């Protein structure tokens, strides 16, 4: 059986002026964006610089510098790449949410607080606030222990915070 073949037109790259106006607008926009990145290379290299998470990680590393190196912090956090902590503190990379518990242990900080900062970085402040509104304020294991102690001491009476009890808590923490 004989099949009739159809001649295929050769592929032709047209000049941008022959393209619809929207194509030219898109190309101009892209060129402007590339030019902006060329003028400000930090824009593309450190997209998370200045976030609260990056600033907090940087501060904790400085506070811990007499106890452990960044490489030790990275290893304790479970990062295979020792540079990952540097990349997070400089804002070059986001902290993966599943790494936050290990990073909190390595940074010796409140994991609930670190998770809040990581959520803000990952999904934005407004979305993170909505997650907390729906699921409640995260508390740490230590805070859970305090709550249990308060319940035991009060015979589960749900005591309200008074100025006297606030003063007692402040005294415990030297404030």
Describe this structure in words.
By secondary structure, the chain is an all-alpha fold. Among the domains are: 52-135, lambda repressor-like DNA-binding domains (434 Repressor (Amino-terminal Domain)); 141-172, no CATH class. It is 61% helix and 0% strand. The chain has helices at residues 21-39, 41-45, 52-64, 70-77, 84-90, 100-107, 111-123, 125-135, 141-153, 163-172. The longest helix has 19 residues, at 21-39.
Characteristic key phrases:
single chain; 175 residues; mainly alpha; 434 Repressor (Amino-terminal Domain); 61% helix; globular
Give a short summary of the structure.
By secondary structure, the protein is mainly alpha-helical. The chain is built from 10 helices and no strands.
Query: How would you state the average pLDDT, rounded?
Result: 80
Helix content: 55-70%
CATH class of the domain at 52-135: Mainly Alpha
- Please give the largest β-sheet: none
CATH topology of the domain at 52-135: 434 Repressor (Amino-terminal Domain)
Q: For the record, what is the CATH homologous superfamily label of the domain at 52-135?
A: lambda repressor-like DNA-binding domains
Strand portion: under 5%
Question: What's the architecture of the domain at 52-135 in CATH terms?
Answer: Orthogonal Bundle
Number of helices: 10
Give the structural class.
mainly alpha
Q: Give the distance, in angstroms, between the N- and C-terminal Cα atoms.
A: 95 Å
Give the low-pLDDT segments: 8-35
Strands, count:
0
Q: What series of H and E elements makes up the topology?
A: HHHHHHHHHH
- Approximate shape: globular
Provide the gyration radius in Å: 27 Å
């Amino acid at each position: 059986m004989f099949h009739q073949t159809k001649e295929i037109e050769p592929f032709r790259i047209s000049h941008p002026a022959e393209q619809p106006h929207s194509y030219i607008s898109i190309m101009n926009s892209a060129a402007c964006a590339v030019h902006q990145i060329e003028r400000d290379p930090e824009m593309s290299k450190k997209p998370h610089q200045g976030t609260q998470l990056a600033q907090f990680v940087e501060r904790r590393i400085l506070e811990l510098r007499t106890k452990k190196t960044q490489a030790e912090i990275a290893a304790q956090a479970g990062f295979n790449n020792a540079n990952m902590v540097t990349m997070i503190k400089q804002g070059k990379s986001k902290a993966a949410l599943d790494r936050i518990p290990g990073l909190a242990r390595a940074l010796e900080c409140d994991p609930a607080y670190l998770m809040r900062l990581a959520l803000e970085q990952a999904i934005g402040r407004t979305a993170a606030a909505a997650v907390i509104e729906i699921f409640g304020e995260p508390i740490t294991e230590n805070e859970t222990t305090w709550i249990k102690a308060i319940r035991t001491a009060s015979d589960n009476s749900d005591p309200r915070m008074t100025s006297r009890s606030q003063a007692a808590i402040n005294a415990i923490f030297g404030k």
